[in-house]
Amino acid sequence: MNSRKHKRSSTNAPASQLQQGLKAAMSKHQQGQIQAAADHYRVLLQFAPDMPDALHYLGVAEHQLGHPQEAVRMIRRAVELVPAYVDAHNNLGNVHKELGQFEEAEASYRAALALRPEFVMAHSNLGVVLAKLKRHEEARASYQKAIDLKPDFADAWHNLGNMLSKCGRLEEALTAFRRAIELAPYTASAYQDLGSALAASGRAPEALAVYQQWQKIDPDNAVVEHLIASCGGEARHTRASDGYVKDVFDRFSETFDTVLAGLDYRAPAQAAELMAELLGKPRAALQVLDAGCGTGLCAPYLKPYAQQLTGVDLSQGMLDKAALRKSYDQLEQAELSAYLAEHPSAFELIVSTDTLIYFGVLQQVLEAAAAALRPSGHLVFTLEAREDASAPGYSLQLHGRYGHSESYVRGVLEKAGLSIQAIRRVTLRTESHRPVSGYVFAAQRGA
What's the whole-model pTM score? Predict the structure, then answer.
């Protein structure tokens, strides 16, 4: 942080004392003493209410302390007092961005760039919000401008790779990802995005090489272990590890709903359609389990049937988002098979969308689901189809999820003592501009 000399309102405190006080507050701020710095800025503002630097940096501190609305108020006041305050415009954009107010963030970043066209971070930040607004070509141009100004800017290369990929310029995207890794070789997400881009284009050996390179710098990472297995680099796994699921979905929880909306995600609605056919008009009378509830996208469909609606998920980040819907009577963090096994004859309806795609072998989890159902209880779930639809069994696919054959699932359901009521072949979502084919299964426990 750099203090700037701006014209201030009249005050009884000498300007030299105010500057000394500001310097002391900024020192605390730079040392990570955020609350102490905020308190110090407030004291300064008691003596000089229109002191732009104190307003700006108090706003930054409030944002760091988890008070974004107050941060907006403070920083906005600073730029009202000094319209040419470039860093304040940029930081105001940062707060708007974190609040999901992307149009407001764009306006703030553009105001900063109008004043300082060579402001590298503002170009990069503008790219982030343009990407959020799905203006991918404009975002790509912003990242490219940041790189032109600072060729060793690893984050901008990484973000440029993502935008090039979204614009369908795969080879250029791969070059950008590789440059990001050269500049910042310990950034796991760059390896993951490079590997994912290669896998999505069917270049499994190249993706495997990238994941193995990543594993050398992060040998205990459950995500890279799973992705190596998806490329055939290890013996076949029978399900995704708990560590993989927790890591992926804890990080994904903040953007999960918006990302899936952009993929035309249909699984909850498709499961609900089949459920309605089987159960008829909802009467809020059932004990219902949302098995792998995630952020609660199934809750609006399940709540009308439920006397009590329970959600279970392995990711605490997802459960925290689900709780905000205020639809669940109970939320539990647990591994699904274990949770089901611990709740025999507890539910009349179990619904699971896009959760069993992280299981290869389904016998244990479906047997546990059968035992957790009450007599005549219903199980409705989705799965992805194997890429080789004619092959039996299951396979771990390049994107890290399992695909299953219809014949395999039929056999497992029968062994679990569940009678099949319906099987629908559906498109679950669109991914990499291609439809993801899958199934909705409905089964019932005997009376």
Answer: 0.81
